[in-house]
Every structure is written in structure tokens, then in C-alpha cells.
Automatic annotation (TrEMBL):
It is found in: Membrane. This is EAL domain-containing protein. Residues 31-285 form the EAL domain.
Amino acid sequence: RADSAMYQAKKSGRNQYRLFTAEIQQAAARVLQLENALRKAWERDQMTLHYQPQVDLGTGQVIGAEALLRWRHPELGQVSPAEFIPVAEDTGLILDLGEWVLRTALQQVRRWQDQGLPPLTVSVNLSPVQFRQPLLPELVQRLIKEAGIAPQLLELELTEGAAMDDPEGAIAIMDRLHDQGIRLLIDDFGTGYSSLSHLKRFQVYKLKIDQSFVRDLSEAAQDQGIVKAIIGMAQALGLRTIAEGVETEGQIEFLRTLGCDEIQGYYYSRPLPAAEFEAYLTRQSTP
Ligand code: C2E
Ligand code: CA
Ligand code: CA
Ligand code: CA
């Protein structure tokens, strides 16, 4: 935010300078406020995870969930992860927070398993900062062991940027995670710069089609072309596909015709607290 304010300040005339200085100060103050609040929230266990169902388009069954962080601050209200994750990354808190997310999500999968629910995968978002930790594979292995679940039930969501920063390094880490049986997917696919030659060497199992291409799928011929191309490419590479941000029946029909494997979005459900997610599953399986 401070960055974009500064960019705008550069773009506009000198007479605008004071105005943008105030904006920059405001943005910087907000970041500082979030930094302090975030650390306290972390120490006081005020973060929770919500789970959004992922549905197999072929069978209509819920086969997994994406774990998404939620933070409600007593005064600031609900703060979006899109705003606080970057702050956590800048301060390094993302390492502790990310480990907590992984542990909590894996323990949740274990509880679902113990409840006798059909096997569910959990997808966890991995920050590039976490991905660059040399001991990440060991950490993940330890947490999976602690939870006592099959490694195949964990999917790690990685953005193209995280992998393309240092493709050779990324390939090595992906290989190690893959050797442990963990599944990797590329998140927000289509918005970054991964080249086909890298994609071929990345040990990924699935591509998540970014919601920006899904949004206007029913109206925009261009987005239809992009989604069609992504699914075609994934199929050629032997990868599964999941579309995120699916809100309408029309979008589902398109994705079905194009051969998309899985769907995630408000059409099925918003991200839910664990107990509500379980209630949702029960409703789905009782006709
Ligand atoms: P993302 O990984 O792309 O997650 C998808 C976002 O789209 C989520 O926003 C989700 O609530 C929202 N969404 C799901 N279905 C729909 C839909 O049908 N329509 C629309 N308009 N939106 C939908 P959320 O939960 O606010 O998360 C924002 C971003 O914050 C995530 O984007 C992810 O990059 C990051 N994030 C969330 N939790 C974590 C985490 O535990 N670790 C890390 N590193 N990042 C996280
Ligand atoms: Ca994601
Ligand atoms: Ca996205
Ligand atoms: Ca993302």
C-alpha cells in the first residue's frame, strides 16, 4: 500500500505531493499498527482457520478443503489475510504462523479421519518465505508424523512467484517434498510467469486456475480461451486442475465442458469454521 501510494506520488504533479505524503504516512501507520496487533494476536491465540470445500466435478463429492487464516481483532475487526500475510512476511512472523497453520490443518484432517468421514485432503497456502526455508521438508514431515496421517492428504499451495524466484532451488525442494508423498499445486495459476519448460520439471500435481479468469467465464470469450488453454496444457502435462472463485451454475457448466477436475467457491460454500464444515459435509451426504 505504501508502495502504490509512492508510485502514485511519483506519477502525479508536485502540487499533489503533500496529499500523497499524508497517504503514505497513513499506510505506514496502518502497517505498524498491524505489526503490533499481529504479534499480540499470535501470542494470544486469536487466529483461526476456516475450511472451504473442494468438490470433484465428476462425482459431486467433497474431496478436500483449503485452510484459510482468519483474524478478528477486538478493535480493528476482521482483518483480511490479503492484508496481514504481507505484514507477517515482512516481520518474519510468517514462519511461526505458517507452522501453526500447517500443524492445525493436519490435526484437523486427523480429527475428520477419526470421525469416520470419507478421506479428505487439506490444502495449505505456503508463503514464499516458508518455501525458501531449507528445513521446510523436515518440518512438514515432522508435523505429518505428529498428526499421524498419510502425507498424500496434504496439499501445499505454492504461487508461481515463489517457484520462479529461483527455479533450480524450487525444483530441489519440490523433489524432496514430492519424495515424502506430499502433493504440491501451483496457486493463482496464470497470473505469474512460470514457463512451460519449468512447469515440466516442477513436481506439481495440480494447477489452481486463478479466480480472475473464472469470474467472467460465462461472458468473456477471452477468459474462456485462457481457461481452456490452461486445462488443455494441464492435461498434456498430466496435471489435475481446480478452479477457484466459482460462484455460478454457468461457470460450473463451462468448467465441466472444458474438463476441469475440481471446483472451489461460494457456489458450494464460503470458507467455514471446522464445526460448520463438518455440518456442511453431513448435509451433503444425506440426500
Ligand atoms: P488464495 O489462496 O487465492 O485464496 C482464495 C481466496 O478467495 C480466499 O480469500 C477465499 O476466501 C476467496 N474465495 C473463495 N471462494 C470465493 C468465491 O467464490 N468468490 C470470491 N470472490 N472469493 C472467493 P481469503 O480467505 O481472504 O484469503 C486471501 C489470500 O490470503 C489467499 O488467497 C492467500 O493468498 C492468503 N492466505 C490465506 N490464508 C493463508 C495462510 O494460511 N497462509 C498464507 N501464506 N497465505 C494465506
Ligand atoms: Ca490458495
Ligand atoms: Ca487466488
Ligand atoms: Ca494466493
